[in-house]
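Example 3.2
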Amino acid sequence: MCFRHCSRGGRAGPPRPDLHSTPTRLETLKLVYKLCAVALAVVALAVLLYPGLLLALADDASVRVNATNIRISFFLFVVWAMVTLLRLSATRPDVRDWPAPGPLWIGAVWLVLCVSYTGFEHGWFAFSPVVYEEDGVFETATAIVLLICTAMLLVAGLGRARRIDRRLSAALVGLAVVCFLLLMEEISWGQRIFGWATPETLEDLNAQNETNLHNMFVGYNQVIRLVIALLLSSALLARKAWEAALSRIGLARLVPPAGAIYFIPFLIYAHTYDELFEEVVGVFLIVYVFNLYRRLAAAPRSA
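Structure, written as tokens:
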């Protein structure tokens, strides 16, 4: 009997084209990647010929303090982007190679954070000082996010994950420790709360005279943030490879959902501002931890 491509008379008609076998011209992204690479090359050449173009996009305070690092960050990004576009042309040449975007509200939050903070730095918007000042709303929110993530990862690591796989349990406890260390850095190891004086050994090294490490490298912070952003972005782009590697040691559940790849443009843009970078990463972190917690709750126990 004929179940496919048969006419009413029983004869086999001409086979229908398989829409999933060969991408159409509109679905192929190779041309898009090439155009992006050309655009990047043109912008990089323009910046080389006219260095003031790049600094014109930055706020005045950043130009006065950080002009050299702005240039280093830009060309580091251009090199990374060129290499990444070449790899994407080979690994993700088709529209269907990209996952569906995650919840749109997450992207909306990242977009609002980026626009509002950029407007604040450039003087486009007027905010109450309590919003972006030291120990203001956003700095406090970052600390609260890290506290929640620490607690949730610890509970998951010592609870549900322990019953699924002890290796996963150990990994979650390790992530909880990392979040706790970041939290302590954010509140200057309690100095912001208890108000003790900064030790003399740190006072001369720390740009804000605080008891923490991340303000000891203020001159290089933008480059450091960009390196972190590019490493995280590369990891998200190589999600399948990470998932295959981690599955061999029982840690595949740590890999974020495929839609997390759309976090990359916000992450790379946010590196330009210290507080914005913390806020954008904070939103990603708490969404990731909640998603991981939910997936662990639905996972069957190991035998």
